[in-house]
Amino acid sequence: RFADVAQAPPDPILGVSEAFRASTDPNKLNLGVGAYRDEQLKPVVLSVVKKAESKIFSRNENKEYLTIEGLDAFRKATVDLLLGAGHPAIKEGRVAVVQSLSGTGSLRVGAAFIARFMKGATVYLSNPTWGNHRNIFGDEGVEWKYYRYFDADTVGLDFKGMTEDLQAAPPGSVVVLHGCAHNPTGIDPTKEQWAAIADLCKERNLMPFFDVAYQGFATGDLDKDAYAPRLFVERGLEIMVAQSYSKNLGLYGERVGALVMVLSDKEAASRCLSQLKRLARALYSNPPTHGARIAAEVVNDKELFEEWKGEMRGMAGRIERVRGELQRSLESKYPAKDWSFITKQIGMFSFTGLTPAQVDNMTNKHAIFMTRDGRISLAGLNSAKVEYLADAIVDSVRN
Ligand code: PLP
Ligand code: TYF
């Protein structure tokens, strides 16, 4: 009966981790998946998470189902984080929020909403983007297209191409925007460019769908990293947002996130929430409790919130430091080439410009595991490995 089922290819990102685990090379380095590591390259559980958990355990709470829309304390916390506590849209009750299964699950609920209530709309994704975006919208049967984003010549944003493509998008289309720290390029629009994109969305009646997976990881400041979605709301646009706590709270495996819709009035928010609940009910019924309790505890507690910001700055700072070290090492080993893009890019990744053949050299010859688009996760690099990585890059670029 199932004899005709074909073998699926490994995931382009998670397949890298599988290959890394299988390697026996003592020098092996995993720069594939975007997951934070400390200077010893070990996974980190934040101190605020441990403190929140001990508070939660001392309360001896039950394991009842949450409501379909999730934990109320978490839903409040996540909107406060996104828009800033006391934001007019919150006071006016025009925000619909469902706790969902981290960023991916929240995007998927959003995609299901688009499939059902924006029938025929095309979703525009940046070229390149996080690979799973294509799967998430594609599997919901939503048509997607690319808009130009990365300019390989300047290693910067192709803003002209981006605006041309969005100008040409049919009214009613959806534009997926990375809230900050664009994955994989590490290149974000400037404030002026964000304003122009917001105006364009308004003029052309495009619906912005923000993927906020790195709030706090771009600048180390939660408010600054929410600049773009807040600006769009301020300009009177209705937006969808998928939020993730995988990276900024290090809750990867707990699957903590939310799908937020900021609407023009309270009635629309109530109707959209009712439909989001209906979609979530059929997808997974209700979200998990533990991670949401942790996030709510941290965001809603003044002391823990301040401590969290410090820990986040620590993570963002370590990444920035190894960025600088990698750039300097490459500059000294191969001064003919301009390596300044490494510290111009922000967030967890560097988009190196290595070709697939050069990536194969990195992996096969040097046991450096990375995605074939040339992205490296700097969260998986430490000072001790900078020189090894730089030598491998130079070897790969020269050959
Ligand atoms: N969106 C982007 C751009 C990401 O990079 C990621 C994770 O790497 C996600 C969404 C979703 O991750 P998660 O489902 O763990 O929240
Ligand atoms: O490194 C990245 O870009 C992500 C990481 O369920 C990731 O793909 C891994 C597992 C997962 C979601 C995201």
From TrEMBL:
Its cofactor is pyridoxal 5'-phosphate. It comes from the Eukaryota. It catalyses: L-aspartate + 2-oxoglutarate = oxaloacetate + L-glutamate. Gene3D superfamilies: Aspartate Aminotransferase, domain 1, Type I PLP-dependent aspartate aminotransferase-like (Major domain). One of its GO terms (molecular function) is pyridoxal phosphate binding. Keywords: Aminotransferase, Pyridoxal phosphate, Transferase. The keyword Ligase does not apply. Residues 27-393 form the Aminotransferase class I/classII large domain. Its EC number is 2.6.1.1. GO terms for biological process: amino acid metabolic process. In eukaryotes there are cytoplasmic, mitochondrial and chloroplastic isozymes. Homodimer. Belongs to the class-I pyridoxal-phosphate-dependent aminotransferase family. This is Aspartate aminotransferase. It comes from Chlamydomonas schloesseri. The lineage of its organism: Eukaryota, Viridiplantae, Chlorophyta, core chlorophytes, Chlorophyceae.
